[in-house]
Specification:
By secondary structure, the chain is of the alpha/beta class. The chain has two domains: 29-132, Ubiquitin-like (UB roll) (Roll); 145-195 and 232-325, Cytidine Deaminase, domain 2, CATH 3.40.140. 22% of the residues lie in helices and 30% in strands. It has eight helices and 17 strands. The strands form four sheets. A seven-stranded mixed β-sheet has the order 10-9-11-12-13-14-17. A five-stranded mixed β-sheet has the order 5-6-3-4-7, covered by helices on one side. It has a three-stranded mixed β-sheet with strand order 8-15-16. A hairpin with a 6-residue loop joins strand 3 (29-37) and strand 4. The longest helix is centred in the middle third of the chain and has 14 residues, at 148-161. It starts with a strand and ends in a 6-residue tail after the last strand.
């Protein structure tokens, strides 16, 4: 498997002067995600999806994809996620298989719409909005008090932790923070949706080897690192209802969908949100922040109210229908 970056000779032109040098580029390679399922004596394989991604943390990407697409409801349903070795030489490192527990009976309708995703948009090949919209079992809990000083500091904290971006300037990032602004997980990828899936895969925890003792009951497999709605957890990690997801690009429909599936109460994006992303956030009860660039911050309307701290007097005010700007002198 290739690394996250490659070198390539380029011709740099500056002030009319041409200079040959070697540049560092982000690696973009296909990853095929396969799903193993069925009884122990009669395992079946489904070629689930192909995505263009930056190599690295592929197990997390696959796990996060399965969860945010609703193919699994809990990481306990997955025994392991491992690279496929019995493939063509040119495919080696670019095919991964997730093994479902024999007791899990997946719904074929949930994987038939996920054959191809591109690094740029994440939803290419999905025939309609209704096919994309996944049923979410629970609404995220209201985030509660929002401190603008914490929110507006997040992009700089994410950028400081982006090692590949520092060298290439050509990769997206997704980062999970707690409500105090502490960085919990950061992943980089050429695709926005891949970076988000890697974060959620890391959040859930990845079983890279088969559970000891052959097939175990699904309830006996370790569940998740971060408590999410509908799952149990004994680790001392902040509950997902106290977490913020920040993405480096725009806020699209599919990223909002993934946050709702994971139970994230607040999503922020450095770029602009789409109309459909705002609509889904409102329907699902997700607080969505766009244009998070320094002090320029716009919160999009959702279904419930949000407490916001004024930066001048540190008092709390309740917004109307969660539609607010904090503080936004320019755009």
């Amino acid at each position: 498997m290739k690394g996250p970056v490659v070198t390539h000779p380029v011709l740099q032109v500056q002030g009319g002067v041409s200079t040959k040098r070697v540049d560092i580029l982000v690696t973009e390679e296909p990853l095929e995600i396969r799903l193993g399922h069925g009884a122990e004596e009669d395992r079946k394989e489904v070629r689930l999806s192909v995505t263009m991604r930056t190599p690295g943390n592929d197990e997390e990407l696959a796990m996060g994809f399965l969860f945010t697409e609703g193919i699994i409801n809990s990481p306990a349903e997955v025994l392991r996620v491992v690279p496929c070795e019995n493939v063509k030489e040119e495919e080696r490192g670019n095919v991964i298989r997730a093994e479902l527990h024999p007791e899990v009976e997946p719904d074929p309708a949930k994987w038939q719409r996920n054959f191809y995703t591109s690094s740029s948009c994440g939803v290419c090949g999905k025939t309609s909005i209704e096919a994309v919209r996944t049923q979410c079992n629970t609404r995220p809990a209201p985030f509660g008090e929002l401190d603008p000083k914490v929110i507006t500091a997040l992009p700089d904290r994410m950028r400081e932790a982006q090692t590949v971006f520092k060298h290439t300037g050509g990769i997206h990032a997704a980062a999970l923070f707690d409500r105090e602004g502490n960085l919990l997980i950061l992943r980089e990828d050429v695709g926005r949706h891949n970076a988000v899936d890697k974060v959620f895969g890391a959040m859930l925890g990845v079983q890279s080897v088969e559970a000891v003792g052959s097939w175990q009951s699904a309830s006996a497999v370790p569940d998740t690192l971060y408590p999410i709605p509908g799952t149990s957890n004994s680790n001392h990690q902040p509950p997902i209802t106290n977490c913020i997801l920040l993405v480096s690009g725009r806020a699209g429909f599919e990223l909002v969908q993934k946050c709702l599936m994971a139970g994230i109460p607040l999503m922020a994006a450095v770029g602009a949100p789409s109309s459909l992303a705002v609509q889904l956030a409102k329907e699902g009860g997700l607080t969505l922040i766009g244009f998070l660039r320094g002090s320029v911050t716009t919160c999009m309307p959702t279904a419930e109210s949000l407490l916001v701290r004024k930066p001048d007097d540190h008092q709390f005010v309740r917004s109307v229908d969660r539609y607010l700007c904090i503080p936004s002198k320019e755009r």
